[in-house]
Amino acid sequence: MANSKTTLTVLIVFLLSLFLELLVVADLNMSCNEGERKALLEFKQGLKDPSGRLSSWVGADCCQWRGVDCSNQTGNVVKVDLGYRGLGGEISDSLLQLKHMNYLDLSFNDFQGIPIPHFLGLFECLTHLDLSYAAFGGMVPPHLGNLSHLRYLDLNGGKYPMRVSNLNWLSSLSSLKYLDLGKVNLSEASTNWMQAVNMLPSLLELHLSSCELSGFPHYSNSFVNLTSLLVIDLSYNNFNTTLPNWLFNISTTLRDLYLNVARIKGPIPHVNLQSLGNLVNLDLSYNNIGREGIIELVNGLSVWCNNSLEELHLGHNGLGGELPDLLGNFNNLRSLDLSSNRFDGPFPKSIQHLTNLEVLYLNDNCISGPIPPWIGNMLRMKVLDLSFNQMNGTVPKSIGQLRELTEMCLDGNSWEGVISEIHFSALTKLEYFSLRLSTKKQSFHFHVRPEWIPPFSLKYVYISNCNVSSMFPGWLRTQKGLDIIVLKNVGISDTIPEWLWKLDIEFIDLSRNQLFGKLPNSLSFSSTAFLVDLSFNRLGAPLPLWFNVKWLFLENNLFSGSIPLNIGDSSSLEVLRLSGNLLNGSIPPSVSKLKGLEAIDLSNNNLSGDIPQKWNDLHQLDVIDLSKNKLSGGIPWWMCSISSLRQLMLGDNNLIGELSSSLQNCTRLYSLDLGNNKFSGVIPKWIGERMPSLEQLRLRGNMLTGDIPEQLCWLSELHILDLALNKLSGSIPQCFGNLTALTSVTLLDIENHKARTSYSTRMELVVKGQVMEFESILPIVNLIDLSSNNLWGQIPEGIMNLSTLGTLNLSRNQLTGKIPQKIGGMQGLETLDLSCNSLSGPIPPSMSSITTLNHLNLSHNLLLGPIPTTNQFSTFNDPSIYEANLGLCGLPLSANCTPPNDQNHKDDQEDEEDEDDRYMSWFFISMGMGFPVGFWAVCGSLALNKSWRHAYFRFIDEIIGRLYIFKIVNMARLKTKIESIAVHG
């Protein structure tokens, strides 16, 4: 009984003490330090909080405020976490009252470029500081080096540039475990950045991505002190050198190494990779390593990292050869990226051993042969990209067993046979399917039953250049989650079903089929569709009016009638392409309401009337193409008040007048086409003075007069100059040799060219005697056409410096002189037409060295001598290209060039020399006899005959008198004129 009472007493005492302790703790948690509460409120006042994320910052207890944590023991604020709050404004130094704060997170806010406050370096207790993506800017304060207890520092920049003058302050942060200075400009510390980082022995993660670092310091392995590192991220820098040896031996604990997009060169150093035994992720993609050393790297990794490596990314490096078999040794590899290299040979067998592989990028290589059937055994595969190789054969049915597959890309190969329902039988998770063939394969079909219900729910389908069906694919109706549909050039000959427009689609491309019928007159997408492309079909009837579409492509169909008067109500339109239809009437004035319009293409229709006024409020307009219509009037004044305008295509209309001076405000133009109109007057000098970016200038087929202005030579980007079929006169400017764009090779970058605008420039040019329309290759077409004018003088020697000029047409002018001897320097010339001039002399022998020349016309000139017979001239068998040159001889003309016999030529030469000697002898004899005979015949007659002598001297006196009177009269007139000028001056 006593024991029971004792036990009960002890229990009551324990419960009472516990209750009292809880009361104390509760009391401590109920309120925060009043000074710290006021400091937080003052801090809040300096902030901008448009979303009201700090609305909980009211009341007496700041420890209950959202984003604020306090100590359970003291009640002091120890943590302020305001990340992802959308805050802005100023950072108040009232925060210094939070003397016990050890954690501050202001990441992912918008402080609009204000500098990081210096006073942040005064928080002695701070262990965690995260200012990443908070839109700070300017110089990073070295005062942060005072935070000696800091273990986590993230200053990863954003849209406002940040920089450091040096990194010496890092050496004081000896406790630092995590450092991220991504997007902070470290170029001023580029020589000693590694020395500063090396003073952080506890560092686990180093992130210096996009820091403008250049060059690796070359240290010995013993110098490097970062033995605990787990992560190194040096991606997106400008090292421009090979990898140092110490990087592969920096830490035995290294888990992740990111060196992608860092301008690293090969070869990979031959080092022992034993220290990388724990490596999980290695990213060397988008560099220039080359094939040398890469095999050794894979071999070394396969020995030491075969059980740890999970991600290996070597894409975009210029690697080549067959893929190494040792790739199959990476037992735990989940992601393998070898894309955009030059690997060749068959699909590597070793990959079948990578049973854990989830992501495989082999696209953009030269891999050949079929997909092996064992691909169906890769049951964890989620992403398979084999696009743009040289693969062929049939697609194996086993690919339909990859039940985890979400993305499958088979673009740009030469498949045969059929893809059918069985290829998708188990692909229940497929979201992204792409089958873009480079050219239409009649032997390859995408064949499924009309009633087929797929097991998947796609978000993206892209099929082009293969046979799908003549009927519109009904299975698409089941794909309720589709965002993007591309069925381009797949042979559909049907109407577009109404249910298609009820899908919530962002991007639809059904171009280059045989679609027919009418479109809905009025259609509004539930959410804004980015693009609708129905071009190159047979759709007809009136043009529909669609809403909530940004890019609308309806060109090359059979739409007729007028453009809807209220087209301006389609306020979302950014790009409108209606070219190549049967549209008539005038251009509606309501187009001026499309404030977001970037490109408008109404070319190749039957539109008439004047170009509308008041488009000057379309400030985003980049492209205007109204060519090939029946528009009249002049160029409106507003046309070049749009500062963004870069392409102006008004050719092939009935426009009149002189070239408007308002055009000189189009200072950003790179393409100007006013050809085949009725413009008159001279070519303005300001085209060369005010349009420095001009690349293509087409003024052919007008009534322009005067000289070609030398200012055109200032256009360093000009590679197409077409002034043919005008009334230009004068000589060709000597400075044409200064057109530098015609002296360098331009590589075709179609993707970049299309990225410039949503419109691809088209231009009709005369090349090889035929009118051709150029579009995709227009950036590499180099042409000068001055034909059918009244130009005179000689061909300028400077033109011979244009080594990459492809077409030179100077025909039908009045040019004289010889063809320049240095014409052989025009090594890019493919078409040369000098016909119908008055050129003389021989065909220069150097012309035969132009091996690219395949179209030549020298007819109707005054050329003489033999026609060259070597290189390209041996292929010019049409005599008409030399006709009407009476002095030319040799094949393919009928006139022979028979060289004289050598001995006869020598005898003739000796006879000519003897005859010359005889002529010279008689010449001197005649001079000796002629002087005395002539002297006495004249002077003797005057001496002997008195009447002749008097008549002769009277004649001389009369001539002298008349000359004297003429002199006196004209001197008097001149004096009177000078005095008159002086009086009125």
Provide structural commentary.
The protein is of the alpha/beta class. Helices cover 15% and strands 24% of the residues. The strands form 7 sheets. It has a 33-stranded mixed beta sheet that branches. A 12-stranded parallel beta sheet has the order 31-33-35-37-39-41-43-45-47-49-53-55, with no helix packed on it. A 5-stranded parallel beta sheet has the order 17-19-21-23-25, with no helix packed on it. The radius of gyration is 42 Å and the shape is globular. The model is unreliable at 18-30, 750-757, 902-927, 931-938 and 976-985 (pLDDT under 50).
List keywords for this structure.
985 residues; alpha/beta; 33-stranded mixed sheet; 12-stranded parallel sheet; globular; disordered C terminus
Which spans have pLDDT < 50 for at least 5 consecutive residues?
Answer: 18-30, 750-757, 902-927, 931-938, 976-985
Give me the number of helical elements.
8
Question: Largest sheet at a glance?
Answer: 33 strands, mixed
Judged by helices, strands and strand pairing, the structural class is alpha/beta
**What is the number of beta strands?**
60
Anisotropy-based shape: globular
Helix content: 10-25%
Note the beta-strand portion. 15-25%
Radius of gyration: 42 Å
- Let me know the average pLDDT: 87
How far the N terminus sits from the C terminus, by CA atoms, comes to: 143 Å
